[in-house]
Specification:
By secondary structure, the chain is α+β, with helices and mostly antiparallel strands. 34% of the residues lie in helices and 10% in strands. It has helices at 2-17, 22-33, 58-70, 100-108, 114-120, 174-185, 199-211, 222-228, 273-285, 299-308, 322-325, 337-344; strands spanning 91-93, 136-138, 248-252, 260-263, 266-269, 292-294, 328-331, 351-353, 356-361. It is rod-shaped and about 125 Å long. It binds zinc ion.
Length: 365
């Protein structure tokens, strides 16, 4: 018996040592050196391990098949993500039958990660297809380290986003002044920086809004402030309609060429009051509400407007304005007002100054 085995061994050895079958010789040498676990490395020339193995027993072929399937196969589809990755340890003791693929599958939940183990253990694994029982492998983390989130791109100093109180025609106060100053700065003439949001300012707002693709309604709301790019917290007030008797025939001396009377809480020349009243009544019948923005101005008021915007195209020189004479009224562009005025004002003795659709006076100046 023993001698038979010995003989067999000898014959095997002689076969293995012969040059007739170098692959088999290699295989047997491998088996002798590594009675384990490891499987054949992929052949560099891509040839199948099974090729040229004529003469192997069925057991041998089974063994080869088993080794073949245990080979690390980087191209293998990764394990489904739903398979929970077993908790990782920082090291792993190789057991009988292990391969890097099996270890990666068992410990990292993904056989394809065998390369990571190999990379960490190249000091002791010279051939990734050969790991030996008793080897203690350094192990990578259980999960592929997540790519650290890219630091947010340094935000460039943002354009100041504007904000401010809702402003519409008739508003008064610091916020209006700031609005007007900003409009001027941006090249939209507000007709002065006087803190009164009159028709000129509203028109400038509309032009600005149109230039930004906003609805040109002349009302400064959040979107318009945003585009204006300034933050404004100034005070705003709207003339209270009922603060003073809004209409009165009581004549008031304003230091101008004629006395004033109060209409809609504002001052207009006493000599245009009757025409004005008739026109307002007619407009009302047509469903149009004519609202005064500016009427009688004192010389000082006109001077202040001029100082803020010394442009004769938009502000009459002090001393020449029909507002100072009590003969002119600026109207709010409330629903249809300007177009109604354009069609009807002359019937009541008022004429438009063409450059300013809000401005009506006795002589059109
Ligand atoms: Zn005017």
């Amino acid at each position: 018996m023993a001698s038979n085995i010995a003989n067999n061994r000898n014959s095997f050895s002689s076969l293995a040592n012969s040059n007739r079958c170098p692959q088999l010789r290699q295989r047997l040498a491998d088996s002798a050196a590594t009675p384990t676990v490891s499987s054949r490395p992929p052949q560099a020339d891509g040839s199948s391990e099974l090729s040229g193995r004529v003469g192997l027993t069925l057991e041998g072929i089974k063994d080869l098949l088993k080794r073949y399937w245990n080979e690390p196969a980087p191209q293998t589809t990764p394990q489904p993500a739903s398979q929970p990755a077993p908790s990782s340890a920082s090291s792993y003791s190789v057991r009988q039958g292990d391969s890097l693929w099996k270890i990666a599958t068992a410990t990292l939940g993904n056989g394809a990660r065998w390369k990571e183990i190999w990379e960490l253990n190249k000091d002791q694994i010279t051939d990734p297809n050969r790991v030996f029982p008793g080897m203690v492998l350094k192990m990578p983390g259980a999960a592929t380290p997540e790519t650290p989130a890219a630091p947010a791109a340094p935000s460039k100093p943002a354009e100041p986003e504007g904000s401010g109180p809702l402003l519409k025609t008739g508003a008064k106060g610091d916020a209006v002044k700031k609005l007007q100053a900003r409009l001027e700065e941006l090249g939209f003439d507000p007709g002065g920086v006087d803190g009164n949001m009159g028709p000129n300012t509203a028109t400038a707002v509309k032009k600005f809004q149109a230039s930004k693709g906003l609805e040109a309604d002349g009302i400064v709301g959040p979107n318009t402030w945003k585009q204006l790019g300034i933050r404004v917290e100034g005070s705003v007030s709207y003339p209270a309609a009922s603060a003073t008797p809004s209409n009165s025939s009581a004549q008031i001396d304003v230091g101008g060429p004629q006395p004033a009377v109060r209409r809609q809480g504002k001052l207009i020349g006493a000599n245009i009051a009757q025409k004005f009243d008739a026109m307002v009544a007619a407009a009302k019948k047509d469903g149009v509400n004519l609202q005064i923005v500016s009427g009688y101005r004192t010389h000082a008021e006109q001077q202040a407007l001029w100082n803020a915007n010394p442009n004769p195209k938009f502000v009459a020189r002090p001393g020449t304005s029909n507002h100072e004479k009590g003969n002119a009224i600026d109207f709010l562009d409330s629903a249809g007002a300007w177009s109604w005025l354009k069609r009807n004002s002359t019937r009541f003795g008022f004429h438009n100054y063409p450059v300013e659709p809000w401005h009506y006076s006795l002589n059109g100046g």
